[in-house]
């Protein structure tokens, strides 16, 4: 079965998964407990934790846009530090996520028990099975449910904050003296207590990391992942900081530290404009929504860890199976069983510290991974978002995570050590003999003679192909402006090289011999891409200002391809394509190269191209997307109104361009004064919405 997940999640889905995973115990349970360590300044600890996670958030965003794959931290660590670290990160994060998810789902049962006499754990198990059913029908359905949770939750929390701020500062019910009393002592245990509290509530922000585990299912990950994470952190940080401030201001300091439902208690002291106890009911419903959203998002993201590890042979392969709805069904069922076991067998005490400690260790590894990937100089490591202030940001993230681990104490450190030992044992006895790959760290030390795993570059190149072009890449323009020669008589590869170098000599003002030597050298290095019926030459040069493509299409087989080291599997050759790009932008070259290869790998590519006699038709076949349209100026059609007009006189949307005109079987690039004639075929490129509008105006109306 297919092992590729559907890309169904947009920006709001990213925001909802991340935000929904953060508003549960962090807001409705932990504030009072966290105040044990720092007193009234606990609201500052929440905001401090939000600031301290920034370096790691930037690192996660960078690697997620470079490697949008299920498995999150596992996949990052496996491909950067090797499969042993991948196993440690995968199993550890998987258990931490499941524990956090089980804790949140138990919260559903606990709050439900406030309204009905029902067994807490039975309700939790029923809720788990419900979330499992949602996850089995697809990430989009899961995310739709998640968005309902998050929107409802944000409405109640914002109303809580607005009403709370109004009650504290604009009503006479709370005097300044009373307010001062509420915030005394402010730092009960100095700065050390503040940092301990920040480490304790750090788990409240771990929803940010859940985005990485579903990155493979996110549309336009290079935009939606970093933007969704930043929006989620800003919204969550503000609500945490202001919301906990309100709790501190309204709840008796003597009881706040022991209060397990501080949000509900604070709500009972505001909402004076609503009937009695309505505020408590609203906040309890919000808590149920929050725990449900965390449980739902937690099951979604946690199940992607065994799926990704099964796909990479670090866990049984059955976990990587995808069923008809495009979801990893076995991994979801496996994760559900574990969560139910945790609900039945474990108590809630200490889970927060345990989850935080292991996540902080993973954060150290992730920040180091960014440094490893950058130092490895692997060209196909092509993040759509780059962390600012590299490597300072990563070093700060490592130091912050280490210090917070120290503040959290020995018990969670011992737990983390146990998980690491379990992962090492599992890798040694189950996975070691099945996995041949190594991480990017071997590329970093390649100059020292260490082993370098070349397949990693191939895997990253595959990811680059799947991600496609980036906004601003001049692929369409390069194809439109490319040169094509159609040969009907047999030619040798050497003759084609002469023809191509003549063109590039004029185009680039290079010495012909130098250009030809560059292409021949690429043959000698075996860096030419060979596909069935196609040879694709690609070189970079510092003097090239913009990418340029020359394609030679031969109706008969190209002879004498002997300079190519291994032509037999790809013969007969009909197409030779040559691309030159600037060496100042190797990542762009790689994306355009991968796009060309993707086109050339279409079924029947060679047969389709050699049947064509029109340059315009060939270029349109190369474009083949929603950003261009081909219009023929025929009498009796809507577009016939263009005949006799200069191109600049034609009313077209501002964001489109007439790139090519075919007239009498000849193709040329027009200018504003070009006079349009009957039977002209116009190739128009531009933004999708405008192209769609032109299609409705000039094509669909004629069908």
UniProtKB/TrEMBL annotation:
Main location: membrane
All copies of domain RCK C-terminal, residue ranges: 616-700
Membrane spanning stretches: 12-34, 40-63, 84-112, 118-137, 149-170, 190-208, 229-251, 280-302, 322-345, 351-373, 389-407
Membrane topology: Multi-pass membrane protein
SUPFAM superfamilies xref list: Phoshotransferase/anion transport protein, TrkA C-terminal domain-like
Record's keyword terms, sorted: Membrane, Transmembrane, Transmembrane helix, Transport
Subcellular location(s) of the protein: Membrane
Coiled-coil region: none
InterPro entries tied to this protein: AA-permease/SLC12A_dom, Amino_acid_permease_CS, APC_superfamily, PTrfase/Anion_transptr, RCK_C, RCK_C_sf
Keyword Transmembrane: yes
Keyword Protease: no
This protein's name: Amino acid permease
């Amino acid at each position: 079965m297919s092992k590729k997940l559907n890309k169904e999640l947009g920006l709001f889905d990213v925001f909802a998964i991340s935000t929904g995973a953060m508003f549960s115990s962090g807001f409705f349970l932990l504030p009072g407990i966290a105040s044990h360590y720092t007193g009234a300044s606990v609201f500052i600890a929440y905001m401090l934790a939000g600031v301290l996670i920034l370096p790691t958030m930037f690192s996660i965003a960078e690697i997620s846009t470079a490697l949008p794959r299920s498995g999150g931290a596992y996949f990052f660590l496996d491909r950067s530090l090797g499969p042993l670290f991948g196993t440690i990160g995968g199993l550890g994060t998987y258990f931490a996520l499941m524990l956090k998810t089980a804790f949140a789902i138990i919260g559903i049962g606990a709050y439900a028990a406030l309204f009905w006499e029902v067994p807490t754990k039975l309700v939790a198990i029923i809720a788990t099975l419900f979330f499992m059913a949602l996850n089995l029908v697809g990430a989009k359905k899961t995310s739709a449910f998640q968005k309902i949770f998050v929107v409802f939750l944000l409405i109640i929390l914002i109303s809580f904050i607005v009403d709370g701020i109004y009650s504290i500062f604009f009503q006479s019910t709370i005097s300044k003296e009373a307010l001062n009393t509420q915030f005394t002592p402010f730092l009960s245990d100095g700065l050390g207590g503040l940092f301990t509290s920040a480490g304790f509530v750090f788990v409240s922000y771990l929803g940010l990391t859940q985005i990485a585990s579903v990155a493979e299912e996110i549309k336009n990950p290079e935009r939606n992942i970093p933007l969704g994470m930043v929006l989620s952190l800003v919204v969550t940080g503000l609500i945490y900081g202001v919301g906990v401030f309100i709790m501190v201001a309204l709840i008796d300091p003597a009881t706040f530290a022991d209060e397990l439902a501080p949000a509900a208690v604070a709500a009972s002291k505001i909402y004076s404009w609503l009937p009695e106890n309505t505020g408590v009911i609203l906040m309890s419903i919000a808590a149920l929504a929050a725990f449900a959203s965390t449980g739902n998002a937690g099951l979604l993201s946690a199940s992607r860890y065994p799926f990704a590890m099964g796909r990479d042979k670090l866990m049984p392969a059955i976990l990587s199976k995808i069923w008809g709805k495009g979801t990893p069904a076995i991994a979801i069922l496996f994760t559900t069983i574990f969560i139910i076991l945790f609900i039945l067998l474990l108590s809630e005490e200490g889970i927060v510290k345990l989850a935080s400690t292991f996540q902080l260790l993973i954060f150290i590894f992730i920040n180091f991974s960014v440094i490893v990937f950058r130092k490895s100089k692997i060209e196909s490591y092509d993040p759509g978002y780059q962390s600012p202030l590299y490597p300072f940001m990563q070093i700060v993230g490592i130091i912050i995570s280490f210090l917070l681990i120290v503040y959290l104490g020995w018990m969670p450190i011992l737990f983390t050590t146990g998980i690491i030992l379990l992962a090492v044992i599992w890798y040694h006895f189950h996975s070691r003999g099945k996995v041949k790959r190594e991480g990017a760290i071997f590329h970093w030390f390649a100059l020292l003679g260490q082993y370098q795993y070349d397949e990693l570059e191939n895997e990253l190149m595959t990811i680059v192909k799947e991600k496609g072009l980036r906004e601003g890449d001049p692929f369409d323009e390069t194809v439109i402006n490319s040169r094509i020669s159609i040969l009907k008589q047999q030619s040798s590869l050497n003759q084609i090289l002469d023809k191509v170098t003549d063109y590039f000599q004029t185009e680039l003002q290079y010495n012909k011999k130098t250009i030809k030597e560059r292409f021949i050298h690429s043959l000698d290095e075996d860096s030419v891409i060979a596909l069935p019926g196609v040879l694709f030459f690609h070189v970079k040069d510092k003097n090239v200002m913009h990418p340029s493509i020359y394609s030679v299409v031969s109706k008969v087989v190209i002879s004498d391809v002997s300079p190519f080291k291994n032509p037999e599997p790809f013969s007969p050759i009909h197409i030779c394509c040559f691309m030159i790009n600037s060496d100042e932008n190797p990542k762009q070259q790689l994306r355009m190269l991968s796009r060309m290869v993707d086109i050339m790998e279409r079924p029947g590519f060679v047969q389709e191209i050699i049947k064509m006699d029109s340059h315009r038709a060939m270029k349109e076949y190369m474009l083949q997307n929603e950003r261009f349209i081909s219009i023929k100026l025929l009498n009796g059609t809507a577009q016939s109104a263009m005949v006799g007009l200069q191109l600049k006189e034609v009313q077209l949307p501002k964001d489109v361009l007439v790139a090519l005109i075919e007239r009498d079987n000849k193709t040329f690039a027009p200018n504003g004064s070009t006079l349009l004639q009957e039977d002209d075929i116009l190739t128009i490129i531009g933004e999708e919405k405008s192209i769609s509008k032109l299609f409705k105006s000039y094509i669909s109306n004629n069908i």
